[in-house]
Amino acid sequence: KILITGALGQIGTELTNRLVEIHGRENVVASGLDRYDQNLTSAGYYERMDVTNTQLVRQIVKDYEITTVYHLASLLSGTSEKQPLFAWKLNVEPLINFCEMAREGLLSKIFWPSSIAVFGKGIPKENVAQDVVLNPTTVYGISKLAGEKWCEYYHDKYGVDVRSIRYPGLISYKTPPGGGTTDYAVEIFYKAIEENSYTSFITEDTFMPMLYMEDAIEATLKLMQAEKDALSVRTSYNLGGMSFSPKELAAAIEKKQPGFTISYQPDFRQAIADSWPASIDDSVARQDWGLTYKYGLEEMTEDMLKNLKEKLK
Ligand code: VAH
Predict the structure, then answer these.
(1) What pTM was estimated for this model as a whole?
(2) C-alpha distances in angstroms, 226 versus 103, 192, 207, 283?
C-alpha cells in the first residue's frame, strides 16, 4: 500500500486524489494531524499520525504493509522562521526515519519534497542550474538542504530509492496552503473573488518560480514512475515552472476580472523571497524523466478564478 503524510495539506490533498485514481482507494493510506473524519480524504484509510512519533509511524507502515511513502508533512518557510527548532525537527527527522525503514527493507520507494528554498546567497537570480552552490538563509531552506543530503546519502550508501523535487511556489484552489512565502499567489485569488482587491506582502517586481498544482502533481507522478537508472540526481530535481511577479499576476487577474486592484505591504516574507531565485533551469528533469508543463500564467489564472468562484459560492 501507499502512505501519504501531510495528506490533508496543499500538495497532500491533490496527490492523494491522484494516487487513489491510479491505485484504487483501498491501496492508499492518508495520514495527518487532524482527528479522523472519512470525508477529509478520498483515500480508503486515514490515520491520525504525528510523523515525529517514530514508533507510531513504524507501526502503521507494518500494519498496512506500506511499500511506498509520499512524505509531505512539513512546516513551510514563513512558519519555520517562527519556530526554527521545531521546524528543523519536523522537516528532517521523520525523513531520516523513513530512509532507515527503507534501508531495513520495510519500504521500497520514498518521495520527499524539497524546495527552491535550498538556493540562497552567491548565485545568479536567473535560470539557476541543478548543481549550483546551495547557501540557504532560511530555517526552511537549511532543513530542505539537509534533507536532500540525507536522501543522497541513503541512496548512495544503501541503495534506498528516495526521490525528490525542488518545488517552486505551488498554486491551487482545493486546499489553501499554510505559512509559505509564495502563498501571496494563492491568497490573491481568494481576495480577488471576495473583495476584487488584494494587499500583497511581496513587492510588485519580486519574481519567483511558481507552478500550478496540477502540473506539480503530474511531475511528481512522472518522477516516481521513472526507471531508477534514468535518474542522475539523488539530492532533488530542479523544477522551475513559470516565473512571475505580483504585478504580472495582478495584471493577469485584472484581464479576467476588470477593476481588480492590488496594493503592496511587504512583511518579513519579503526578505525570504529576496533570498530565492527568480527563475530555475529544470533541463535535467526534462532529460531524465520527461518533465513537461500544461499551465502558463493565463491558463492558471483562468482555471483558478473559475474553480474558486465555484468553491466560494
Ligand atoms: C513556501 N510554498 O513558500 C513554499 C515553497 C518555494 C516556496 O517552498 O515556503
Answers:
(1) 0.96
(2) 21, 39, 31, 16
